[in-house]
Sequence to fold (74 residues):
Amino acid sequence: MSELKIRKIGNSYGVILPREELEHLQVREGETVYVTRIPGGVQLNAHDPVFAEGMRAFEEGRRKFRNALRELAK
Fold:
């Protein structure tokens, strides 16, 4: 666990993530990270869990309705 201080950045507030944490998340400057509220705090992710769930549902539907989608594409 890392201890981070909240700092004023312009009209907002933020924290500076140490290089080790950025490497662990596999992100670089300018990339997007996602904050998810969990019981007792927040979780920082390098991917959007809502988007990932939507893609999983799409893949499942694409396999299930493969023939119908092929006909619609004509």
